[in-house]
Amino acid sequence: MADVSVLVADMSAWHHSGHPAVIGQWRAYLAADRIAATPPMRLEVLYSAQSAEDYAASAEELDALQQVACGAHAFDRAMAVQRALGSPRAAASEVIAEHWLAGRRRVAV
Predict the structure, then answer these.
(1) Cα distances (Å, whole numbers) of residue 55 to 18, 36, 43, 59
(2) How many CB atoms lie within 10 A of CB 61?
């Protein structure tokens, strides 16, 4: 496998990071500052928080990661690819995408 500088985590990676099969590598990447988050991933992770405490803890963990910008064009392309693949979670992801894009539009005004 090719060496990479930074791994951009997604929701699945975030929630499975504690699995015994990957936790060692995940912690190594964290220690080396090689895991990054994007605004859509952050929104999705925080949206899934089970409580205010869970939200605060997840936000703190996400704040410690490198942040990678995700422009509207890249996000639109990712959504198009997901739709083309027929992901069963596409509908839920599109709702989250709409919240994210609506927020970006309000900030841009």
Answers:
(1) 17, 18, 11, 6
(2) 14
Burial 34-57 (b: 16+ CB within 10 A, else e): ebbbbbbbbbbbeeeeeeeeeeee
Note the pLDDT of residue 92.
57
- Strand 66-67 and strand 35-37: pairing? parallel
pLDDT averaged per 10 residues in sequence order, the chain, 109 residues: 73 89 92 91 90 95 90 78 67 55 45
Decide the pairing of beta strands 7-8 and 66-67.
Answer: unpaired
Task: Give residue for tokens 């992801």.
Answer: 93
In whole angstroms, give the CA distance from residue 53 to residue 35. 23
User: Which token pair is 31?
Assistant: 């220690």
Which residue bears the tokens 């590598």?
25
* Distances in whole angstroms, Cα of residue 80 to Cα of each of 90, 91, 95: 10, 12, 14
58: nearest Cα among 37, 31, 80 = 37
Is residue 48 within 8 A of residue 63, CB to CB? The reply is: no
